[in-house]
Amino acid sequence: MMQEKKQKQILLVGNPNVGKSTLFNVLCNRKQKTGNYAGVTVASHSGNYIYKNEEIEVIDLPGSYSIYPTSEDEAIFSRYLIQEDYSGVVYIADAIHMRRSLLLFQQIQDLGIPAVLVVNQVDEAEKRGIKIDISKLSEILNIPVFETNAKNNVGIETVREAVFNNEFKIAETNSFEIPLEQKALVYKVSSNTSEKNLYKIWTLLAADTYLGKIENIHEIITQEDTKCSVPKRLQITETVRRYQNIDKITSEITEKKPQLKELLTEKLDKILVHKVWGYLIFLLILLLIFQSVFFLAEYPMTWIEDFFTWLSAFSADHLPEGPVNSLVSSGIIPGIGGILVFAPQIGILLYFLYLLEDSGYMARVVFLMDRMLRPFGLNGKSIVPLVSGTACAIPAIMSTRNIENVKERLITILVTPFMTCSARLPIYSIIIGLIIPDENFYGIKYRAIALMIMYLLGFLMALLSSFILKSFIKTKIKSFLVMDLPTYKMPLFGYDFKLVLGKVWEFISGAGKVIFTVSIILWALSYFGPPQHKNEILATNSSLDHSYLGRIGRTMEPAIAPLGYDWKMGIGILTSFAAREVFVGTLSTLYSLDDEAPEGKLIEKMRLDVHPTGEKVFSFATGVSILIFYAFAMQCISTIAVVYRETRSLKWTMLQTVSMTFLAYFSALIVYQILK
Amino acid sequence: MQTKHIDKLCCFPKNKIGKILGYDNENLQMPTKIIEMGLLPETTFRILYQAPFNGPLYIEYGSDKTRIALREAEARFIQVEVSE
User: Fold this and answer.
1) SS3 letters across A218-261
2) Does the CB of A230 have a partner CB in chain B at under 8 Å?
3) Distance CA B73, CA A70 (A)
4) CATH classification (class only), B7-82
5) Interchain pair B66, A230: CB under 8 A
6) Residue A527: what pLDDT?
7) Of A330, A461, A595, B46, which one is least surrounded by beta carbons within 10 A?
8) Superfamily for A1-259?
9) A155 pLDDT more than 70
10) pLDDT value for A44
11) Distance CA A274, CA A615 (A)
């Protein structure tokens, strides 16, 4: 038998919240976010598995309700489905919502795409008294149908076997009859081109955006032809007719016993979307998260810090005297340690956000916040990027793809970087530790209050900028909110924990690489200096003040002195232009390199550092000025890149970076000048 | 014969079972997503909650008790009546 050269490629397709990503994860054993909020799968992900010596590539497409896209992620879905090459579609239907699931499924069948049908969450449906006759469904649709329960790994092997045996099937008859009014036109296109699928031609007429490709289509269809067929009206006709057909099918395949028991979702929503309690609970959840970020993380942070202080001292004692010793023990180790210490905080924050998404709670937050965000030119769905922005702006900006309205999406992308991301935490923690005393106010720590204020400041700035942007960005398209409220699900605690570990490792290794390079460059610039004697080409082991680094720092002092910064902080801001977290790593390296600085932890060194005049380097005014600078400054190359990719506009990307930097500089300037 | 009283979904009383009659969509301003989500004529529904200050409506509909959030502005397109 001939070995197939091309790898078999399957697509996972379905509505949002049907357990598509969960199925992807059990199929592929590959790391990828599963979520219970419409739009967690923000891009198509691919993974693979091997079954009976055959390697299968699995593409997980964003969820959609129909092939006619209304948002960016649905557009990605439709384009991929119609334009790409693949072996077949594994369509995942939700047993609880068969009716809605079948709409998209029949569109896919009519497009002539080979598919198998998987009915997922059968156990959940049975809890609701819904019993589905799988064999009857298979008979009516004339396609293989499988039952699964992806969360508990039930039925997965049968799906794998079906894929292995290529059980994908193309429907023989169309479930949607082209309406009489358009029939002539559709036949005209069909007879003039190689396209014989009538429904595919119909979708060209019915879609607002260009979905598929048919050669010379514009020569065949004249404006006269399309005059009386408004795409939107055709979509409505199609959807209504399909549902009439689907209702017949569902009544044949489902057996529903009266369900008197109130289910968990019903009970929970009485409180969670309540006019008063709903908001209070949301606020409490946020408070709980921030409280945990600070206090649960305290112990592991001390361990990591102690370990690196010890490691640095150990390598200083045991490595031979000379440049290598100085590079390792004063450059690399403190630089890496300076960032690793924040891993616990970042991990805790991410874990909570994952749990909130998985459980289905985020959709309720959208419901609660929509009215509040609308006056700012935002959509209720903007709350998801804004909240995830407290972890990292990059996935947050990608998650804006399910916001249908272009204007609301653009504003959300532009303001999300103001949210306090986890890379700001290291800076905030250390500066707050320096300038705010470790005292309580009726049991609440001043430092916790200060951190809370920083988070609020970011959020308020995001709202304020949205409000300003709202009047600059014009659009004719009306904003709307039509959003599924999924049933609550128990989050996969262990699975999410693994995901968090992966993400934290990504953060550490990503930042670690930059910090590693930066520490070597910093070390070199500080180890060498301009020649002091005539017969020298280069001064080595020069004191920090006389090194090249000191020189660079002093050159930029006029620009940063009005903000209250000394040359070390200047170097920190410069090196952290690519990524904020590098600031702390840089300071850590710089203080280790300074032979005159006292031994001990970074924060102690910073506390004891004084100007030649005897004043503290990190005074209250300087500290606040740094906090403000980092609250508003862009300082993140990856975010700039993702904004450009998502907006496809150099203008908005530049405008965002430049205005954030200006805002940061001048706010810090004003604050320092007032407080000093 | 008694004439039916037609309401709009946005103004329909809470916790009362209603039935969708059709749409007020002459200018095609209504998001097609409403229909795609299965809010079709003859579907029964119930408004369970509404977010404060005329915020979105929380609606349960159909025999599978699907739940969605809709703004008042979108709900205005949907014509409904009290279900007997």
Assistant:
1) HHHCCHHHHCCCCHHHHHHHHHHHHHHHHHHHHHHHEEECCCCC
2) yes
3) 18
4) mainly beta
5) no
6) 78
7) A595
8) P-loop containing nucleotide triphosphate hydrolases (3.40.50.300)
9) yes
10) 57
11) 54
